Amino acid sequence: MKYYSTHNVGHKVSFREAVFQSLPPDNGLYFPEETPALSKSFWSDFPDMDRVDVAFKIARSFVGTEIPEEDLYRIVSETVDFPTPLVAVEPNIHSLELFHGPTWAFKDMGARFLSRCMGHFTEKTGEEVHILVATSGDTGGAVAAGFHGVEGVQVTLLYPEGKVSAVQQRQLTSWGDNITALEVKGSFDDCQKMVKQAFLDTSLNNKIHLSSANSINIARLIPQSFYYFYAFQALPNPEGVVVCVPSGNYGNLTAGLLAWKLGLPVHRFVAASNANTVVPDYLRTGEYHPQPSVQTYANAMDVGAPSNFVRMLEVFGQSYEKVTNMISGFSLQDPDILQTIEQCYQQNNYLLDPHGAIGYAAMQHSLKDDEQGIFLETAHPVKFLDVVEKALGHSIDFGDKIDSLMQKTTAQKEIDADYEALKGFLLGE
Ligand SMILES: *Cc1c(COP(=O)(O)O)cnc(C)c1O
């Protein structure tokens, strides 16, 4: 399978190159040259198919023969070895719980697959790769968990001092070994700027092999299509299914669209946002105007210029008409996020996190009588404890879940928001 750049269809690379480069040099995004339909026998076996087999067959469609079958099978079986249950919140509205992985958010799925693919390739050549990631919270923890102990890979995470939640901070700093957390005296934007500068620094790149694990990496997207298939397997009668994806960079939604392109019979999608409404606005008006991001309670979705927007359109050949036939938009402001969490808990005894709350509200708002809804519950509520407690007006006891994490020893290095400080660290100076 080849991947082309969305800026230049003529620029094609292998899966391996797309994984290590992450971004094409022309600043486009890598996109699969084709989405081969799954075979008839796949669909006849699908209702009872083992989840590893489902993942393997989808991964095979995207990776081709670049990774030998037995290795790819092992990679996907390690990727999907936590449950993704579909839970009925109301008779017609289901929550697809994607937070049962090691860092309690859906990003675990992508990070596990990416790390194992990279590990597979570096093991063969014996080369050392250095992954550099700027994180505002969830990504860094998932990447750390995914790469911890992977041979031949060093990971450096940059996070802004005082701007990540207590749980997120633990999940960034409690690994050791090949994972180093750098606490930057600055903002997330500073972290991102420092990382970008490192990738552009030729003298640094001549000395160490830098690579990225950010959400535009194609190997993070591919495994995110697996769980859409699992959700359909879990429904007794998967007809008229509307899937709602709480979105920030729109990677998760794009993965859902790839699943649909592979033949999964999704009736339609809802793109749900917080106060960062550029994509719902685009779907309504046909005009796309990236904005500076606005801070909200659903902070993993605080994105004003979504990096996967171009890929989302690419699925539809950049046609506004085709996009809007399949996807509608929805957005929810902060006060309504709190209210939704509270109401859903009172009425259904189901505790949403702020991101899932947006998905649930979208389903309540837009589901028609002959449809059934699935929203992606992208994080465990404990990750956003302060927001959830604010919504309910009382504290919640999550028992051991949080205690064992909080007891872990942590280590981080403080650095200034200055590129030379990062470079010095990377070169071991
Ligand atoms: C990253 C994240 C999102 C947004 O996902 P995208 O793929 O960037 O659209 C939503 N919810 C949570 C909890 C996240 O961590």
Descriptive notes:
There is one protein chain. With 429 residues, this protein is of the alpha/beta class. It has 20 helices and 14 strands. Helix 16 packs across helix 17. The longest helix has 19 residues. It is globular. The model has no long low-confidence stretch (mean pLDDT 94).
Q: What's the helix and strand layout?
A:
Elements: E1 2-5, E2 8-14, H1 15-21, E3 30-32, H2 40-45, H3 51-63, H4 69-79, E4 86-90, E5 93-97, H5 107-125, E6 129-134, H6 138-147, E7 153-160, H7 166-173, E8 179-185, H8 188-200, H9 202-207, E9 210-211, H10 218-221, H11 226-234, E10 241-246, H12 251-261, E11 268-273, H13 278-285, H14 309-314, H15 320-326, E12 327-331, H16 334-348, H17 354-366, E13 372-377, H18 385-392, H19 400-406, E14 413-416, H20 419-426
Parallel strand pairs: 5-13, 6-7, 6-9, 7-8, 8-14, 10-11, 10-13, 11-12
Antiparallel strand pairs: 1-2, 1-3, 4-5
Helix pairs in contact: 3-4, 4-5, 5-6, 6-7, 16-17, 16-18
Pyridoxal-5'-phosphate (PLP) binds at residues 105, 107, 138, 215, 246-252, 300-301, 355, 378-379.
Describe this protein with a few key phrases.
six-stranded mixed beta sheet; five-stranded parallel beta sheet; 20 helices; 44% helix; binds pyridoxal-5'-phosphate
